[in-house]
Each structure stands twice: as C-alpha cells, then as structure tokens.
Amino acid sequence: MRWLLPFLVVLLWVHSECRLMKDSGVEEDSKYKVVRIVPKNEIELGVLKKIYKTAHDFDLDFWKGPTGVNQFVDIMVAPTFSDSFDQFLHSRNMTYVVTIDDVQKRILMKEKPRSSIDASLNPLLRDFFGKRMHNDFTSRNTAKYGFGDYHSYDTMVNWMNEIERNYPNMAKVFTLGVTYEGRAIKGIKIGSPVTDTSKRIVWIDGGMHAREWAAIHTALWFIDQLIANYGVDPQITGYVDTLNFYITPVVNPDGFEYSRSEANPQTRFWRKNRGEQICKKDRWRRERCCGGVDLNRNFDFHFGETGSSEDLCSEIYQGKSAFSEPESRAVRDKMFSAELYGKVDAFITLHTYSQMWIHPFNHERRSFPNDIFDLQTVGRKGVKAIESMYGTKFKFGTGADILYPSAGGSDDWAKAKAHVKYVYLLELRPGEDEWDGFLLDRRQLIPTARETWEGIKVVIDAVMGLAQRYPKTITHAPFSATTPTTTFSTTQATTTTQSTTVFFTTTNPPPALPPSPPPTFSPNPLPVFQPNPPPVLPPQPSQPRQTDVDVRIELQKKLEAARQRQVAARREYERRLRLFEAQREAANRLREQQARAQWQLQQTCMDRSPWCANWIAQSPNICRASSIYMRQDCARSCGYCRSF
Known about the structure:
The strands form 3 sheets. An 8-stranded mixed beta sheet has the order 5-6-8-7-11-14-12-13, with helices on both faces. The protein has helices at 4-23, 42-53, 82-91, 103-111, 114-118, 123-134, 153-166, 213-228, 234-242, 253-260, 265-268, 326-335, 372-390, 399-402, 410-416, 445-469, 548-602, 612-618, 622-625, 627-633, 635-638; strands at 33-37, 60-64, 73-77, 97-100, 171-178, 184-190, 200-205, 243-248, 278-281, 287-290, 344-352, 356-358, 395-397, 422-428. The radius of gyration is 30 Å and the shape is globular. A hairpin with a 5-residue loop joins strand 9 (278-281) and strand 10 (287-290). The protein is α/β, with parallel strands linked by helices. 41% of the residues lie in helices and 12% in strands. Among the domains are: 4-101, Metallocarboxypeptidase-like (Alpha-Beta Plaits, 2-Layer Sandwich); 135-269 and 325-469, 3-Layer(aba) Sandwich (Aminopeptidase); 612-643, no CATH class.
C-alpha cells in the first residue's frame, strides 16, 4: 500500500491550506454533513480503507466503513475539513453524494424531545397528538413506557424498577456493574418464577455503542412483550415459564447519556464508552482530548488483531488490554457467574444500522464454529421472520464476510469462550436504501422493534427445543473469569474454510473402540482355599508358563486390532463426509434455484416504503382509500400479495 502514502500527504497538505484560509478570515461552512461514497474499484477501496484507519486525524466519522467494491461508505465530515476532503476526492476522481447536508438540523428534526415541539401546539391538539405519539400500541403491561419516542437512561431504569414492583414473581432488576462515571449498568431478569435459577437462559443486550439509540429501544420492547403477554399469549407464556431472560438495554450508559447531552454532531454520534481523557497536540498543533474505548473490540477473543486500533483517539480504539473496561468486565463476570455459566443457550446483541443478521466468527473471513449448520438454520429462519412482518430485507452471514473483519467482539467471545449455542449480532434499521444512518425517525421505532421481535422469537423457539432436552442442573462457574475450565456445551470454537452456506453439521468422526486395557497380573497370586480338597487328576503334559514376553505380544496384537478398527472408523467417517459434501452441493444448487425464483416473486410483492406500518396505524382504512398508491408502495402490509 505504499502508493497510498503520497495521496495521504496531499490530503494533509490540502487540509492545512484550508485551515490557513480559515485563519485568514475566509468564511467556511459551519455545518456537518454526511457523504456517501461507492468505491468503483480496488484502488478507490484501498484509499478509503487507509483513510478509515486514521479518520480521527481528519475530523471524519465513518458511519459505515469500507467493505468492498460497489459497497457504499457513509462518512460524516466536519466543517473544518469539508473543503479539503472535497478537493482530495476530486483529485482522485472519486465521486460522492451528500446524503445529509446539515446533520445538526436533521438531529433536531428526528430526535428533538417532543415536549419542546408540543409546547407550541393548542392544548387540544397537543393532547390528541400526544396520545398518537406515545400510545402507538396497546400494552397490557401496567408499567407504562412511551415507545413512540426516545428517552433517558434514568427513565428506562425507573420503568424496569416499576415492572419489578408490579410483577415481583416474574421480574427482577439486577446490576451488571458500575461504569467509569459511577452509573449502575441495570438489566432485568424475566422468568416465572423469577427465583428459579435452574432454567436455560436467553441473554439480550443493546447500547454497547452509545449512538445506536434504536437498538436500545428495541431491547426495551422485548421486555414489554414478555411482561405484557404473559398469561395471554400461549407462546410467550411458554417462554417465560420455561426459560429465564436476562436483558440489559444499555450496556454503555455513560456513552449513551453523553450522546444525549447536546445536539452537536460530534456529541450525538459518540460511539465509545467514557473514560479518562488524555489531551495532546495533534499534527496541526490543535489541542485534542481523547478518551473512551470501543467496547465491541475489548473482549478476549483474538483481541487487537483486526478491525481495531491502538490509537486512543480512534473510534475503534480497542483499549489497553482485553476487558480493560468496566462495561466489558461486567458482561464477562455475569456470564461466568454461578447463576448463568453453562446455562446460556442464546446470546443476542443489538446494534444499528444496515439491516444485517450476523453470526460468528468475525475476526477473519470464512471462519466458522463447528455447529455452523445450526447457527445458519436458525439465523436464516429469523431473517425470514423479520421479512414476513413488513418485507424488510436483512443480509445474513459473518461480519467479516458481509462487512469487514473485526476482532474482540462480544458475540465472538460469547461463542468461543462462554460456549453459548446460538450467538447473533443484529444490525437493525435503517437499511442501505435510506440515508439517515443512526438517526432513525421516531415513527419507525415501533415497526423496527416489532419486526425484530419476530426474528428473535425464532431463536427463542430453538432454545426451547434445547431446554426440553437438557436436565435442570446446576453448573459451577469456572475458577477463572478469563479462562473457563468447565464447558457445559459441546460446541467448540474452531476455524474452518468451508462455505458459510452448508446443509449438514460437521461433527467429530465416529469414536473408535479404545484399546483393551491390559490385564492385571500378580507375580505371587494368593492361594484359593476351598472347603473340600480338589480331586486328584492324572498327570497332564506340562504347559509352557506364560512369560512377560508373551503378555507383551498379546497386548500388541490387541492394540493393533484396535488401531485397525480406528482406521476403519475413520474411513467410514470420510466416506460419509464425502457423501454429505455431495448432498450439500446438490442442496446448495437447489436452494439457489429456489431462492432466485422466490426473489423474483417477492420483487413484485414487498413494502417499498418504510412508513407503511405508521400510515396504517394512523389510518386503518388507507389501504382501501388509496388502493392504487398503497398497492404499489405497501403491498405486503396491505395484504395485496396474494392477488398478484
């Protein structure tokens, strides 16, 4: 990549010139903007990857990093660097589109507290719109929460505490840990009865990255669904009776509250946790204070290898060491506690954005665990369940294969070190066709949570199947929090080069019979006394006494026979493996043909607008009143699919 060095030098020079112009009194646009770049070839992709690694030096914030040719990249550009970045891209003949021309204005429009908007309304209108905004659905939960809006961390914690007070037999608030700024990381355990610690467990968390507010809201929605529908919906009742749910909506409360503190784009889109701030002069002699760690690079799985940075100012700073942060340690310690260890069958972590369903492993491309077939089977069903709600499309695969390699993630750690069966990371709305990025409109919060819940229920159903097979036993936690010594699950973390689309499970070969244990000989056997003396027999020809050499020869023969059985078993395994490979290839071809046919069919029957659910909620008769328009843009939600 030596060829990139001259261009970065040019980029630095252009930036310096623009700063000199600003210092000389030349006016500069003061608005943050977001640009979308689609690299057309490997050279342009290489340029973007190089800039991505040093983005903090150029006041750039990559909302979506470079992943491949013809894959879009979203970058928020600071006003101090807007002109120089524009000149640099033009010098490389790289084109871009401005998707958000004023980020702060978009923040206020999408996320400004409703109270400041409602204050200007007529009281009657304010009451009407307030009901429509905050009561977009009917919940049986006696602890009420405004799911049509974004809220503070304190509001979320108070709501969980109210749930515990109202439903003491099935809900218990717990403290995961304490942050750098002294905030308690609160979660809630849901199960009936909540005191039963022998049941299998589903773990769900959100808010590991501070700016991903929609993920937090979705985790809260899951809590409400379990509480409100218990005793009403047989499926939910079965979940809560059979399993325990540990849900932590905000793993990173310090970062989340900081991102809410002001509408300035640099604050709103803060990604890391909060920690000690270290100030230093940058290459332009500016005083810069940096701090915080990307928590999803701080877990002990291939820590610091790929997709992270050792630079404190980087958005993907991995930290000084694995589990250097109180938030990541809190997750580790809870997972390895006697209460949870060996019982967690699903680990789901929620993020935004890009609409992706990701399974391990993510530290390098084409790397998968042994039970990849099970992970993919359940994951693909989850993707289909999400799509069945509003037609929302999700990509599926490992993060390394559909995004970029990144080591030290909580999901990879949960699979490899905590030995959890079903591990998934979900990137929620919006998708690639929308340009708002992390600024998900309030009116899409509930539809996003609803469709995601449909996918999560598929995972829970898989865990229910496991729970029926596992006995209720207590598994001791490992002696060390960093190195588990007791493995409940038989799943092992391995690296393979097989395709991510497989249709059988690769298991260990059939066990060969072990060599027979050598017999125990005594040089002086004890005499056996009988009540009657043995009869006198006629003399027999003397037999040669078995010597130690004869014993070794006999043992060698037995060992060789065992080896032959082992070789035969191995050959049988390889034969079956070749047969499975042939079946997999045939199934792959059939699946591709079916998927292609299904895709062609679905292109004519899908929701082309993300607002369909919101429109129908506000005007239930809109499908008939505006049938021509709704048939075109909301075919799935309006039920027109079957008429195609």
